[in-house]
């Protein structure tokens, strides 16, 4: 690909993730987007996969049992002149470090909120990670076909709970049974809910006055007048649309709609894709930045998925391409080891099937078959200049188990497995100060199950895991360490680097500790 084509291709890319709380409608809206992109032909395809009604290949057994599939990890399609990559952020029981790390590989995020429920805990957690990255966040207030909370309330909540300004892009005309349409503030039109025909779907507005031109039955509807009053109020008291703030993730454009009835989704997709950024530069460990239009290939591994089928020991390393073009069979340098690697089997992800990729550019994700070469956070590149992307952050685990080998005679394989799996970054390992007991920490429960399964199948080591429940992990300054501060309610442990931290049983235990030791500073990872 010549320089100009490469630049054009990169400029077309839009790579984002959808963040939400379970049941807000992420799957439904993803499916609608795939329909617009022509990837699927029927609604229900992604849904069927989620509920386990989908014929997947022999991928991870645990994944299969839970009805998820690696093929849905990345979905790619063309829409409105853009090449869209949607990265899935596993939720429900599959919520894990991977969910967070995926957010390191995107250029924007879409936040789906159930308009009856408002901002829920998982949305908040994911939002925090996205906010730290300073990338644009677009909000879809879903389920407008049901009675929900007041639109103004929902926007105010963004500021109260997430500390981000919300700026309304459209405004609901009624909701639930009374839903009539969406007043589209920037496109100067009303999108009718359930119009009689396609021709009557949009009602144009006079851009000067913001009112319907000519005659229209809607003008007689009280909801119309009410909406005009709301819009007046918004333009006086609401946040002002600000491109710079949106780009920095300080303001989120808010769209209302209903994913299930496919109402407002297409307008949303068009509008946010027009504002979402193409791949930009990435920070390097050297302190320099690398532009997405740099000619040489580079990328980093943000997720490694193991194949749980013992007959297939291969794994897939997911690479976010940061610059240049990826080509099948190319030789790259692995920054961590300085060794050359030939990349033979690469997979580009489509929602319907896995396809062999010939080439991909900055912004795209490729899956590389891995026989143990890669670690999460690895940088790969071609060209003479060394490229090491910034380290991926570690996330504070929330669940903990004590782990021991069932057979004390098999300590060697136990330790080997522990060491290798911990290095992959799926779980974090801690040791107690007093007795050197192993404690594993993870963001989600699934990680423990995968760990146990792989210890048995890959290292022939049966492990016993004793849950010690949800805990809050807080790091302390090693200089302030005093083993006498440890108790069952605030267990003192050290991480792999030897840094001390407490695992608090709950908030009360943490507050009690803070009162007792006011001089000790407690820190989280991210
Ligand atoms: P998730 O991926 O965020 O977990 O949510 P998902 O899309 O699976 O949606 C969760 C539930 O909310 C589903 O109902 C779905 O049909 C419903 N839903 C999604 N968008 C809308 C919407 O705009 N309006 C309404 N009224 N409902 C919506 P379910 O009963 O759990 O599943 P199903 O049996 O209906 O498929």
From TrEMBL:
Compartments where found: Cytoplasm
Record domain Tr-type G: where: 11-280
Main location: cytoplasm
Lineage top rank: taxon: Bacteria
GO BP, sorted A to Z: regulation of translational termination
Keywords from the UniProt entry: Cytoplasm, GTP-binding, Nucleotide-binding, Protein biosynthesis
Family classification: Belongs to the TRAFAC class translation factor GTPase superfamily. Classic translation factor GTPase family. PrfC subfamily.
Protein name as annotated: Peptide chain release factor 3
Protein source organism: Lapidilactobacillus concavus DSM 17758
Gene that this polypeptide is encoded by: prfC
